[in-house]
Write the structure tokens for this entry.
Amino acid sequence: MRFFYRVYIFLALIFIVIIFGVTLQQDANVSDRIRPIPPVPEEIDSIFTLYFAKNGKLVEENREVATKDMIFERVIVDELMKGPRNTTFAATIPQNSKLISIETIDEICYVNFSKEYIEGIEWEELGEEIIIWSLVNSLTHLEYIQKVQIFVEGETIEFSHRKFSINQPFTRNEDIIQKRDVTHYYILKDFLDSLNLERYEKAYIMLDKGSKARISFQEFTELMPIYIKQLRDYEIGLHITQKYSDRVVITLKYIKGTADEQIGFYQEWKLIQEEGEIKIVLGNIEDYNRMEED
């Protein structure tokens, strides 16, 4: 009797193990079929350089954009389609145009517009060069894009007089950009924009020799993101330039908030002439981390 009882217990245990194994396999199969939910990206503030038209030339407009879209080339085209914020500039993409697709492969950005892109009157008023390189120069400001191929409804476009053919990708054209007077403030603004865009190599080159001797590039790339992070939500409300015999001092006033409840602080930057170029003198790092309330 005991023998049959033991056999019964043994078979029951085997049955339980088989059932448990089948359940685990089913759960595993279900898990394999369920796609993981990707994390929702946080909204980030980025500064993009856009090119619009003015007096037969391209002029740049640096625009801060808060976006969750990590495909920056799409963000740039969307902002170009919104037109310039500066009322003296002219838009270069018809607002009724639609962006069908955009993709970057091997440093070439492929942009596909709807037919409204080529049908807009802007082509006659502004000229083909302005419209083409407004897009090309804006996109090639991204370091990972070297050329731009433009499509309309999936097809390359030709012009009747054959002056241009966009069967081949376009490269950047600096000659069509309106040259601005290189002022000390322009140099400083370019330096700060480079920090915002995390182009630390370019920013570091703009420092004078003394600053580079005091702080290495590695230290520079570790400290500057902390400084830039503190400037989030602030904008330059005022700048004052004072010229001395051996240096130029620029005082920036950073502000945020409404006119009724405005918060602000001042920072000074020193620039000098070094081997025929304007260079930025980096002060003590603590100076850039201290924000004084207005």
User: Anything to note?
Assistant: Confidence is low (pLDDT under 50) at residues 27-35. The longest helix spans residues 2-33.
